[in-house]
Amino acid sequence: MFQRLSTGWQLACQSFRVLRLDKELLLFPLLSGMACMLVLASFAVPLWYTDSMAGLDDGNGANNPVAIVVLFAFYAINYFVIVFFNSALVACAMIRFKGGDPTVSDGLRAASRRLPQIAGWALVSATVGLILRIIESRSEKVGKFIAALLGMAWTVTTYFVVPILVVEKAGPVDACQRSVAIMKRTWGESLSASFSAGFINFLLSLPGLLLIVPGIFLIASGNPPFGIGLIAAGAVLMLLASLVSSAANAILLAAIYLYATEGDVPEYFDRNLIAHSFSRT
Questions:
Q1: What is the pLDDT of residues 94-126, one digit of tens each?
Q2: So where are the chain's domains?
Q3: Is residue 215's pLDDT more than 70?
Q4: Contact 250, 32 (CB under 8 A)
Q5: Which pLDDT value is given to residue 148?
Q6: 11-69 confidence digits (pLDDT tens)
Q7: Three-state SS across the chain?
Q8: Cβ distance 11 to 252 under 8 Å?
């Protein structure tokens, strides 16, 4: 277990080093976040009007077909945006691993060529997300626990879906099946690498948190200008940490997928580390 965590940590660190070569890849999570905010803003009135969120919270949303349709549409469009930009980022990582020098336009073109696959996966993800939301609303404690377990299992089994969509042009069902097959062979290192990337994100976010917390206390103690300044600076640092972590995690995902499916070790990753850590068919 400790060996796997050590391997995951080293792989995560190497993905951050790759990101330094292509800093423009940070635009993809930034564009994704901005687009998701626009989606949320555009659905704010329909969600409020149909009372869909409140209806699901009290367990009555499942009996309101309008609320279900609105929430499903919101989930589908949101997932489409996220998967589209993640696909663009993974495509750029693949170009780098193959010896090329990717640009933002390369990633956008690659994702645009996979629009049917991305749209199909967005619909599947929205369906699963809606089902989990309904399960969660059925019982305050049991429903949330079951939904959390199912959501975790879904996240693990679909871990490799994005690179499969990009590289193999697979449909939603085939992509899910392929992701499960790859995860069975690499589950230990894949999960530990993902955990390590998340922990690095936490470390990167600490400076922002260390500014936000005293900023809140300053506002509460009657010094709002300085407190607001600290909170704003902390929020910017946390946003940067989130962008870096999201991009590095996509690079790591692409690297693991590349070795698991083709046996190729990306130039910027330690060959012995990957070769002795993963099994593949």
A1: 998 888 888 999 999 999 999 999 999 999 999
A2: 2-275
A3: yes
A4: no
A5: 83
A6: 777 788 788 888 899 999 999 999 999 998 988 877 776 654 555 555 555 566 777 88
A7: CHHHHHHHHHHHHHHHHHHHHCHHHHHHHHHHHHHHHHHHHHHHHHHHHHCHHHHHHCCCHHHCHHHHHHHHHHHHHHHHHHHHHHHHHHHHHHHHHCCCCCCHHHHHHHHHCCHHHHHHHHHHHHHHHHHHHHHHHHCCCHHHHHHHHHHHHHHHHCCCHHHHHHHHCCCHHHHHHHHHHHHHHHHHHHHHHHHHHHHHHHHHHHHHHHHHHHHHHHHHCCCHHHHHHHHHHHHHHHHHHHHHHHHHHHHHHHHHHHHHHHCCCCCCCCHHHHHCCCCCC
A8: yes
The two structure tokens encoding residue 192: 């530990």
Q: Which residue has the tokens 């990009």?
A: 166
Q: How far apart are CA 24 and CA 208, in angstroms?
A: 22
Alpha carbons 245 and 16: distance in angstroms, whole number? 8
> What is the CB-side half-sphere exposure of residue 171 using CA atoms within 13 A?
1
Residue carrying the six token digits 């704003």: 232
Query: Could you tell me the two tokens for 9?
Result: 């940590």
| Residue listed under structure tokens 């930009």 | 85
pLDDT tens figures, 131-170 = 888 887 776 677 777 888 888 888 888 989 999 999 998 8
